[in-house]
């Protein structure tokens, strides 16, 4: 007793073949339309517009200046910066991976090294400012003790 709604095996293969052909045709048409839209209407520039100000990597290279100013105002100390070295390495890598194009690990590491070296330079500059502030404080205390 066979069900009348069953299709023969060859009919299933024929239907599968046509579905695959239509799917590939739809994919090709979609890709062609996508390329036409992207290249004729300059969609990539339109999409990059709001993002580019935030991806400007040159702001990260001003890190020593920012930390120097924070040290002058007494917000950060060299001890505080040295305590978070491990976090600076990870942060440098994350920032470098956002700045570098593509997904190559080597290019991210190539930018991580200078960013971390800038962090170390920031610690050295912070130490110089901290030492100068301590000397000035000691000189003021000595001047107050003499007076």
Q: How is this fold's topology laid out?
A:
Elements (H helix, E strand, L loop, with lengths): L8 H33 L1 H6 L14 H10 L5 H6 L1 H15 L5 H42 L1
State the share of residues found in helices, binned by percent: over 70%
Number of separate strands: 0
How far is it from the N-terminal to the C-terminal residue, by CA? 117 Å
Query: Over all CA atoms, what is the radius of gyration?
Result: 31 Å
Number of domains: 2
- pLDDT < 50 stretches: none
Query: Which term fits the overall shape?
Result: elongated
Structural class: mainly alpha
Rounded mean pLDDT score? 86
Number of helical elements: 6
Quick description:
With 147 residues, the protein is mostly helical. The chain has 6 helices and no strands.
Can you tag this structure with a few keywords?
76% helix; 6 helices
In words, what does this structure look like?
The chain is mainly α. The protein has helices at residues 9-41, 43-48, 63-72, 78-83, 85-99, 105-146. It has two domains: 9-46; 55-142. Helix content is 76%, strand content 0%. Helix 5 (85-99) packs across helix 6. The model has no long low-confidence stretch (mean pLDDT 86).
